[in-house]
Amino acid sequence: MKNLKTAQNIWQVIFASSAGTLIEWYDFYIFGSLSAIISEKFFPPANRELAYIATLATFAVGFIVRPFGAIVFGRLGDLAGRKYTFLLTLLIMGGSTFAIGLVPGYASIGIAAPIIVLLLRLLQGLALGGEYGGAATYVAEHAPAEKRGYYTSFIQTTATLGLFVSLAVILITRNLMRPEEFNSWGWRIPFWLSVLLVIMSYYIRIRLKESPLFAQLKAEGKTSRNPIRESFGKKENLRLVLLALFGAAMGQGVVWYTGQFYALSFLQKTMQLEFVQSNVIIAIALVLGTPFFIFFGRLSDKIGRKKIMMGGMLLGALAYYPIYHAMDSTVNLQQKQELAGQYRIESNMTRNSDGVSTERTARVHTYTDGTRVRDITTVTNGKTENSKEILVSTPTLAWLVFLVFIQVIFVTMAYGPIAAFLVELFPTRIRYTSMSLPYHIGNGVFGGLLPTISTLLVTQTGNHLAGLIYPIGIALICFFIGTFFIKERSGINN
Fold first, then answer.
1. Which CATH number fits domain 2-331+393-485: 1.20.1250.20, 3.30.2350.10, 1.10.10.10, 3.90.79.10?
2. What keywords is this UniProt entry annotated with (predicted)?
């Protein structure tokens, strides 16, 4: 009976922790999933490329402040407890996300729009900086040492599932209304839905008890009085923090963002794939790949965390260039033959809620392999904008799903075991603070800056694949440090 009760308790803990963390990731990634539209709504329209880079920079700000959130909430979690700390981060994240959906656009309030969005993005980053460490620590401190990789791997699925849910909600919303309505105001709906999700998650989490290891420390009066000083002021622990960052977290961070966010950005901005198709490709690849987080988490209990994580980083570094070259080749129109007899022109006129009319003309080119290219001219108030939209055939769509899926496998190898790895690296009394900082610097700074840095590299060089220099370089450095300087610690209790 006792073992059955323990099993029931651990699954309750996993469900409550994972549900809340998934919602926080959903909130955090809506912004990135809608970055192309947000760049048009909140930034000056004079230069579309500059507006998109500014949007990616605002997106990256949320990552950059995550380490500060890790320090603030990590300290709180090591002093007051894991449970109430990640209840607080949940509420901050949900409120910030909902507020972004209410901010008027640049056309209404000018420069105030991007400033307000930036401030709300800062709050999102701070909240997420405190969330992950609390949830991972909370689950790990309930799990038996021999199954820690398996149980914490469910927390590891939440980041990818949060991205998937954000894409699914966006696609459903988009398909329930006309494209013009979605671009006008419908894109705000995914932000508004955050309130309902947060309320449900808060109700689930409030019923949890404190983690047994932390509760025991607190009862014995052995909790840290100054977790920040103890984490970073002691030479031996600081060494572990630095190894966790440069030998695991930063490589895992770039692999995670390359295989998911950079892949989406590459499909939409570089390959100019149609909005729905590009999101469908990522969503299918994420669904197919998500079970491998649990597979590699469980495998790490048997063979160790380090081998799997380093393998994911090395494979990613070696495979990214050929994978993205293959992706880019699918939309190389110079290698395709056009069906001249199927050329057509589509034109329509719409009027938004302010009474402003927009004329949209699309010149549609069809190719023998099923590819369709829409050269679009949009005229609003006498202002003309040109864009391109590519739709690929079903076989090509399946091929692109496979190429992204391979990248997701690298993600699951690097990310699946890392929660257990970080938990085992640090003692319970300062675990929340110690593990949160390297994780969020690795993911928030090295990983979060990837879309911005890679886009700038592509813009400066004119080479579609130049953006891969950054993730390949970081992954190789991390692989070397992790392989030669980190010892395997799977199953350790401290």
1. 1.20.1250.20
2. Cell membrane, Membrane, Sugar transport, Transmembrane, Transmembrane helix, Transport
